[in-house]
């Protein structure tokens, strides 16, 4: 088993787009129906094959319900009736190119919308990992365990 790679921010190239080839997979333990809370040992890891939704289209779909930021991306299932639901916040969106067994982490689920899970017409909103690479790398590289609490000054 290998750790997942983290997406790079490739400015001035378009950093917002997941590659058009391969598969984009979201996995999580969230609910499968609205109002259901899944907990305990009977949780089942589920996956959703996803595709990216153009940011302009996503903004139009959400209207005033959610304010998309520059470091957000929208993903929806390629299968109708499958969507993010309660408990899926924090789920990873990993792109697999098919060339290797490892994947590349593109996003972390932030918001699943305001509609019932199975009837969703709005995509899920994800934080783009590439925009947080500097912070992620600093946390990963602080393996000395000497990170100071800001209250220790």
UniProtKB/TrEMBL annotation:
Instruction: Give the signal peptide, or none.
Output: none
Q: Which residues form the Peptidase S1 domain?
A: 1-141
The UniProt entry, under Pfam families, shows: Trypsin (PF00089)
Mind listing the GO molecular function terms for this protein?
A: serine-type endopeptidase activity
What are the entry keywords? Disulfide bond, Hydrolase, Protease, Serine protease
- Could you tell me which Gene3D superfamilies the record lists for this protein? Trypsin-like serine proteases
Q: Give the record's GO biological process terms.
A: proteolysis
Matching InterPro entries: Peptidase_S1 (IPR050430), Peptidase_S1_PA (IPR009003), Peptidase_S1_PA_chymotrypsin (IPR043504), Trypsin_dom (IPR001254)
Return the protein name.
Answer: (diamondback moth) hypothetical protein
